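P.,

For your records, the input lines for the assembly:
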Amino acid sequence: MESEEDMHDANDWESVGEDLYSDYGEEGSEVYVEEGDDFFCNSNFDDSKDVMVVREKPFTVLSEDDIRQRQEEDISKTVAILSISKAEAFILLRHFKWDENRVNDEWFANEVAVRRAIGLLENRVEIPKLMELSIDHLTCGICFETYPPNMMSAAACGHRFCGACWQGYIGTSISNGPGCLTLRCPDPSCSAAILQDMINFLATDEDKEKYARFYFRSYVEDGRKIKWCPAPGCDFAVEYYKGSANYDVSCSCSFSFCWNCTEEAHRPVDCSTVAKWILKNSAESENMNWILANSKPCPKCKRPIEKNQGCMHMTCTPPCKFEFCWLCLGVWSEHGERTGGFYACNRYESAKKEGVYDEAERRREMAKNCLERYTHYYERWASNQTSRQKAFADLQSMRNEKIAKLREIIKEEESQLSFVIDAWSQIVECRRVLKWTYAYGYYLPDHELARKHFFEYLQGEAESGLERLHQCAEKELQVFFDALPDSPPTKEFCAFKTKLAGLTAVTRTYFENLVQALENGLEDVSSASQVAGSSTSKSQSTKGKAGKNKAAKLAVPQISPDDYWACDRCTFNNHPSAKRCEMCSHHQ
Amino acid sequence: MQASRARLFKEYKEVQREKSADPDIQLICDDSNIFKWTALIKGPSETPYEGGVFQLAFAIPEQYPLLPPQVRFLTKIFHPNVHFKTGEICLDILKNAWSPAWTLQSVCRAIIALMAHPEADSPLNCDSGNLLRSGDIRGYRSMARMYTRLAAMPKKG
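Structure tokens returned:
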């Protein structure tokens, strides 16, 4: 059982990192295959099968056309199975969150109840019959004007209103948002659903378009399997297959995000830590202060709600419609006599007495007092963020123009230069991981000294490794751009290639270990001897590589990595000129 | 704007014609502004509001009847669903359950019904709600009666 779980992790791990991790590059292969071998020995699975599983991604990126096609397919299937109209199938599927199986189960279990709940009438009230009664004009129930029957329309229920009023009624509902998808007949006693064919017949062109947009988006927003890519201006959505332990997905627009919380990808830090961190970051801004002071999030859909009037019985705006108590944020249906009435909720009062609410507030207060500690982590988080953005831009320009330029100077095949792209991709990915380790570090409890020290050690090593790689990819590569095209520095370039590729591989391995260690909750630290053993061997291997590269580095006048001094307290490698540790301010 | 004006005008005419039809409701349109109305409603019998006349103020939005009118009590009233200070009313049909087929007249009827059947489950006036919830019907009736006497009935002498 355990090995199976392990395998699961390993699968997710490799499948998600995509190129960066699952790519068994030449240089990286040494370390990687070793680990892989180990892993396959431990589990009794067929190798070939494993490789296949490893390659499979736990998600699919969908374009608008793909989504439309799927929506069409789902609707057509339901139409065929239940023999209802397309517009009815839409209402039905939307109501059951686009879960076909549930639709079928519920429908065949109790069709009458389902029809009643969503306002689908079984039999249309026939309008021609009324005309036969020789009624020549009717009064519209909204504007009270009289019209001949043929100028009025009704839903399946037969409640007739004039065209202008229908248009206004539908338009008001559409401008209030996706709640218009569950629009009902205007008659107060009637709950017949207004279907899309009716909207298309009666609404203005602009409203029809908006409605069609809500109709389409419902497939993603009301369904449970697909989410929009949160990148600005990106129209793709990502379908995720449940059951995988890791939520990081990458969209076709090259944005990586966590499918669970739709923040940007944040491995190895978990969603709740990220949410806390992001809230904390924005808590400093006035906006967030106002939202915290004046609103509460809907307990179900998390939209902030401002209570500006009325009683404690809150109903979230459609489509959420969640009913809850403003004081304790509990489900409204559970309120009543037992909770001490509806307006002075007992649960809230008793929780307040027990300190649950005060606690949250006090913690917030304390966090503000610990501003300095926070600033320490935030600055590092933010600077890695900026650094990553810069590295990403560099990677793009490298891909788009600089590689071609380098080819001219070095006179090499493009495939021979791919190691530069690999290095930059690695830098971008590492900056992302490193950035999130600062959020992780911020929430690591101060009293767990062993874990904290181990974490800071790992982070420090990772950071200095990445700095070396970044430096090499940026500064040392620049030298070759400045070289004269008639005397290509082939020899030097060869040495540079070995160095950069080596650094890329080392850094990659290091970050893999870091991510794994953090995801395991730094378990290793419990068996101290093991930690000492593995970490020394790791640092040796890094140092070994760095040592090998020293010759190449000497060509460019700079400070050797050996000149940096490691802080006694946090192990961070400091610049020789620094008298105090740049990380923890400890004296040299 | 045009549609709401036309509809309000229809309602105005209807009110003139039906004046005697519903003796409990008297709707009055502002002389200069068809979007401002007041209403006088009679407290329903066999309630603590019996014998009182309560004044309501209507502010009607331009999108009426697609959006509901804003209604509040001008006369002080002790009722679980009416704010004691502002007169604001907590009634579903004035919020999310509004339908354009409702009229000012039917809104008044709904408010009279609310006076007879207070909804203590979502109170705006907590003291009033508390009395009802705790089963102190006598206490609630006395308070409501007192305020009806004080505010909604002509002073004796």
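Two observations worth noting. Confidence is low (pLDDT under 50) at residues 1-55, 527-557 of chain A. The two ends of chain A are 49 Å apart (CA to CA).

Regards
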